[in-house]
TrEMBL record:
Keywords on record: Signal
Lineage: superkingdom: Bacteria
UniProt KW Signal keyword: yes
Signal peptide: 1-19
Biological source species: Flavobacterium difficile
Protein's name in the database: Secreted protein
């Protein structure tokens, strides 16, 4: 009887472990003899709704011929004025990990890009969208596969922008529940790195 209970418990635990696995959903997947490009679908990492202002941060992991990177997009909308954020070749993204280490990502572009002010006539909102492509550096990259991220810091030339990452996010914008602190643990394996 004890053996049957052990077997049932083992099967349930195994099923639970595999049931928690995140699906690899690709926006682009092109693999040939000479090239390998994979881009994961966009996932929300941070969302902030306060007063007249809404902002959110999304990520897309990608790999192009062995180079692993991250497309970061930060959208802000508000009835109030929004300060510009500009990134250039010196902009760095730091991921603070639960083990106290940092992972550094460098900007793929040397040009300055600013989130230009736009106006939404219908909803009467100011809009700013900042998008950038960043590549991982070798230091501590492997730690992303096992350690949670608790802080993201973007060192822009107009000032730093910090995001405190939640263990669970119930997005009002995307209408989904996610675990942003385990984003890299969940999705780096999809790229085969």
């Amino acid at each position: 009887m004890k053996n049957i209970i052990r077997i049932i418990t083992l099967l349930l635990l195994t099923n639970l472990a595999f049931g928690q696995e995140k699906a690899c959903e690709f926006e682009i997947e092109i693999v040939t003899d000479t090239s390998n490009t994979k881009v994961l679908k966009e996932k929300i990492i941070d969302e902030n709704i306060f007063g007249n202002t809404t902002s959110f941060l999304t990520f897309k992991l990608f790999v192009v011929d062995g180079f692993v990177g991250l497309n970061l997009q930060y959208l802000q909308k508000s009835k109030d004025f929004l300060s510009p954020i500009c990134i250039d070749g010196n902009t760095v993204v730091y991921l603070e990990l639960s083990n106290g280490k940092q992972v550094k990502l460098i900007n793929s572009s040397k040009n300055e890009d600013c989130n230009e002010l736009q106006y939404d006539e219908i909803n009467k909102n100011n809009l700013r969208i900042l998008s950038g492509f960043f590549y991982f550096t070798p230091e501590n990259f492997q730690d992303l596969k096992t350690e949670k991220v608790y802080l993201i810091k973007v060192t822009a030339n107009t000032g730093d922008v910090n995001f405190v990452i939640k263990p669970e996010l119930n997005s009002e914008i995307y209408k989904e529940k996610s675990t942003p602190d385990t984003y890299f643990i969940d999705y780096l394996k999809c790229l085969g790195v």
